[in-house]
Amino acid sequence: MTAPDATRDAKVYALAKAYLLSFSSYGVTEELLAKYLTPKPADLCPTSLPDVYSRILESAQNRGMMATVVGRSIGGIEALRPVLCGFDPVAISARFSTPEELLDAILANVEVRGQVRRNTGSLWPLFSRAALSGARFLTQFQDLPDFLAWVAIFDDDPRKRAALPLIISREIEGFGFALACDFLKELGFLNFAKPDVHVRAIVEELGLCPAKADDYAVLKAMVRIAANCNRTPYDVDKVFWLVGSGYFYDHKEMGTRGRIPTDRAAFIASAKKALARGA
């Protein structure tokens, strides 16, 4: 494919926002979108290393069926706080020697709805490995300012930025590049976007990055789109993700518990037509 130009980037972003606003009958307005696209720093930024660890757990279960099998089965990640030492990474690392020990403690102290499979590739063991390796990763930092200063080394330099999720994906078992990006952006680092299934489908099928691009290339495309639209990568990520998911998670009164009937394939088809006619 030829390299996408700034005009195409801006058009796709504008089309995506317009598509979301077409659901005004469900309550989607500019003001509502702004709450998702430009969050206040206080809504995102951690105040302690346990806050950062909580975000690791949220991101660890933010893939596929894991949010249902893990998070929803216990009523939310917060239910793990008592058994996981108040989310203190040092205390967790001292208490548990193996992911299996950590999972045993969860099952002994937290009510889990549904079956818990214990074979290596099952979701609860995968989550437990991320939980323990995530705690050990954070023990490298003295406190929150030390962690934030480390992130800033990468985040403040566009040439280094994409290396940060690569490092985190190697430190925390099962994260991968996409979940590392999710972890960073949901902490409040707005220069990151998660190359998930919705984002990937939109940027690939609308010619904003090569087909079957790896996660690194999708992130780089999102950073470029954001720059060409004078927005943050976090903003562009949320627009594309909302188009694909239709999930306004902070407004459960909308649609069906926050879900409205967006259609990613229909949006992509209409956007292709609009781009073809130069709209």
Question: Key terms for this structure?
Answer:
279 residues; mainly alpha; Endonuclease Iii, domain 2; 2 domains; 15 helices
If you had to describe this structure to a student in words, what would you say it looks like?
There is one protein chain. The chain starts with 5 loop residues before the first helix and ends with a helix. With 279 residues, it is mainly alpha-helical. The chain contains 15 helices and no strands. It has 2 domains: 6-42 and 192-276, Endonuclease Iii, domain 2, CATH 1.10.1670; 46-187. Helix 1 (6-21) crosses helix 15, helix 4 (49-60) runs antiparallel to helix 8 (123-138) and helix 13 (215-229) packs across helix 14.
In short:
By secondary structure, the chain is mostly helical.
Which SSEs are present, and which pair or pack?
Blueprint: H1 6-21, H2 30-37, H3 41-44, H4 49-60, H5 66-71, H6 89-95, H7 99-109, H8 123-138, H9 144-155, H10 163-171, H11 176-187, H12 197-205, H13 215-229, H14 233-245, H15 264-276
By helix and strand content, what is the structural category? mainly alpha
Q: What's the story with the biggest beta sheet?
A: none
Total helical segments: 15
What is the number of domains?
2
> What is the typical, i.e. mean, pLDDT?
92
Gyration radius from CA atoms, angstroms: 20 Å
